[in-house]
């Protein structure tokens, strides 16, 4: 038996699992963001400032002022971790009227790791498992491993915007992410929208690559200010024309679940 995925609409009993999933996904990027911040100009500025304050105002010997380095590193770690924790809590508790979940069915007795099983997924169903796997379902366990939401675009008419994309870090990012994005695009097409957009940050490189593989284009790259001009985060606005996507979807080697 091979694992497969079911993409279905969100239900009320999924709320607890989804909140935990979103928190886990967002917090999984905290370490990469922390490492990225260590090599920014603001880190050196804080070290020099802390060194100067301890030496000039507190009279600490110059060689002992080196303690400013680990203090700044700890400060950056707590700041990044705190911001990611707040972001994960906000996303987890933010209501969404249009939301899908990815539910994986995998054999109960399997020696393979979760990522190995997820990377071997070849089948995707919508709402319920297909008739050809009904006999297998009784011998498989299911678990929610991904979610995605879509709302109306705030700046464009007749367009959608992807939000709250999250996939369990214990499973491979692809192909679960592919199926979730494809499901939103299918819904947008059925709703006669002409475009779908989303935004990724500089630490979401893997997710951005999946968007680009599916057919999204980079509309613009901009920097969001966190602390004035000193600390900025690069954002990428991605978009796809649904008419063009429907014309080229046969070239994409991903099965789109249809309701």
Would you kindly provide a written description of the structure presented here, covering whatever features stand out?
With 259 residues, this protein is α+β, with helices and mostly antiparallel strands. The protein has nine helices and eight strands. It has helices at 15-27, 30-38, 41-56, 68-93, 114-119, 134-137, 176-190, 205-214, 242-248; strands at residues 4-9, 99-107, 124-126, 140-152, 159-167, 195-201, 217-227, 231-241. Strands 3-1-2-4-5-6-8-7 form an eight-stranded mixed β-sheet. Strand 5, helix 7 and strand 6 form a beta-alpha-beta unit. Helix 1 (15-27) runs antiparallel to helix 4 and helix 3 crosses helix 4. The radius of gyration is 22 Å and the shape is globular. The chain starts with a strand and ends in an 11-residue tail after the last helix. 25% of the residues are buried. Mean pLDDT is 84; it is low at 254-259.
Notable traits:
single chain, 259 residues, alpha+beta, 9 helices, 8 strands, 27% strand, N-acetyltransferase activity, membrane, Acyl_CoA_acyltransferase
Blueprint of the fold:
Layout: E1 4-9, H1 15-27, H2 30-38, H3 41-56, H4 68-93, E2 99-107, H5 114-119, E3 124-126, H6 134-137, E4 140-152, E5 159-167, H7 176-190, E6 195-201, H8 205-214, E7 217-227, E8 231-241, H9 242-248
What global shape is seen? globular
Q: Quaternary status of these chains?
A: single chain
Terminus-to-terminus distance: 24 Å
How many DSSP H or I helices?
9
Looking across the biggest beta sheet, what order are the strands in? 3-1-2-4-5-6-8-7
* Residue runs with pLDDT of under 50 for 5 or more positions: 254-259
Radius of gyration: 22 Å
Helix/strand/pairing class, anyone?
A: alpha+beta
Strand content: 25-35%
Order of helices and strands: EHHHHEHEHEEHEHEEH
């Amino acid at each position: 038996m091979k694992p497969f995925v079911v993409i279905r609409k969100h239900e009320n009993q999924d709320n607890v699992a989804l909140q935990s999933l979103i928190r886990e996904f967002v917090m999984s990027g905290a370490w990469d963001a922390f490492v990225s911040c260590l090599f920014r100009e603001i880190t050196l500025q804080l070290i020099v400032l802390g060194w100067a304050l301890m030496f000039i105002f507190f009279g600490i010997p110059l060689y002992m002022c080196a303690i400013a380095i680990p203090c700044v590193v700890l400060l950056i770690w707590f700041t990044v971790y705190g911001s990611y924790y707040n972001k994960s809590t906000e996303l987890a508790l933010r209501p969404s009227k249009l939301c899908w979940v990815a539910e994986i069915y995998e054999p109960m007795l399997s020696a393979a790791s979760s990522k190995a099983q997820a990377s071997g997924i070849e089948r995707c169903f919508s709402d319920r498992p297909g008739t050809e796997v009904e006999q297998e379902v009784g011998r498989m366990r299911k678990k929610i491993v991904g979610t995605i939401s879509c709302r109306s675009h705030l700046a464009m008419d007749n367009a959608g915007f992807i939000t709250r994309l999250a996939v369990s870090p214990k499973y491979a990012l692809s192909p679960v992410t592919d199926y979730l994005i494809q499901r939103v695009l299918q819904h947008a097409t059925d709703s006669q929208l002409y475009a779908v957009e989303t935004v990724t940050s500089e630490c979401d490189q893997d997710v951005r690559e999946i968007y680009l593989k599916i057919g999204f284009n980079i509309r613009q790259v901009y920097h969001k200010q966190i602390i004035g001009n000193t600390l900025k985060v690069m954002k990428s606005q991605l978009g796809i024309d649904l008419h063009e996507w429907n014309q080229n979807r046969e070239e994409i080697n991903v099965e789109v679940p249809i309701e």
